[in-house]
Design a protein that fits this description.
Layout lengths: L1 E8 L5 E13 L4 E12 L3 H17 L5 E6 L5 E6 L9 H25 L9 H25 L3 H8 L4 E6 L2 E6 L4 H10 L7 E4 L1
Antiparallel strand pairs: 1-2, 2-3, 4-5, 6-7, 7-8
Helix pairs in contact: 2-3
Length: 208
């Protein structure tokens, strides 16, 4: 969930900005995420609204039991900065080392969010170290394959996946036997396979 700006241009040319609480929700039918408005907060130039949002930020931090001191520096009626004073039980660390550690933690968390959302990974609970290592290694390899395909095709993985998934293996049953046949692919799918150097599968896979 995040804070979203919504702008509305009036007839006199002025622009009204509203703040909304929004959330990204995955639409399985369309295969993409959608933005849903959870709550309309109000106009961004309302000082009372800004103060309520500040109080909300403080209450969220208290609810999460985060040991941080927040200071707001207002730049406009809408945008403000939150400075977090980090704490550590290691008194040998300098301020620069602590800041660097928090930044690295944020980058790792962002990388994992990208990894899980892009690959649509379901929650997995592993306890054995070798299973955890295998899960991480396979996830990283899968993400690298996605990125390699995107660079080769110059397109997003979502579009590449939609073109390639038209190739399907069908089972045809008859009194005389069973045939496993690959369905005819689209022209887009053929172009994707050519770019990615994927060999075209044989039309008939099995006869029984």
């Amino acid at each position: 969930m995040y804070l979203r700006e919504s702008r509305q241009k009036r007839a006199d040319g002025s622009v009204l900005t509203h703040l909304q609480l929004a959330a990204s929700v995955w639409n399985a039918a369309r295969g993409q995420s959608e933005i849903r408005i959870v709550y309309n907060c109000g106009r961004a130039d309302d000082p009372a609204l800004i103060e309520r949002l500040r109080a909300l930020a403080r209450s969220i931090l208290r609810r999460l039991n985060l040991d941080v001191d927040i200071v707001f520096y207002e730049t406009t009626s809408l945008h403000f900065w939150i400075d977090c004073v980090v704490h550590s039980n290691d008194d040998t660390l300098s301020a620069e080392d602590m800041a660097l550690g928090y930044k690295q933690q944020q980058r790792v968390e962002e990388a994992w969010r990208t990894l899980k959302s892009g690959l649509r990974l379901r929650p997995m609970f592993h306890w054995a170290p070798h299973r955890i290592h295998a899960n991480v290694a396979l996830s990283v390899v899968a993400l690298l394959l996605e990125r390699a395909a995107e660079h080769a095709c110059g397109d997003t993985w979502r579009n590449i996946r939609d073109d390639l998934k038209t190739v399907k293996l069908a089972q045809l049953l008859s009194p005389h036997g069973t045939v496993w046949q690959v369905t005819d692919s689209s022209k887009k799918s053929a172009n994707r396979r050519k770019t990615l150097r994927i060999r075209t599968p044989a039309l008939i896979q099995s006869l029984a």
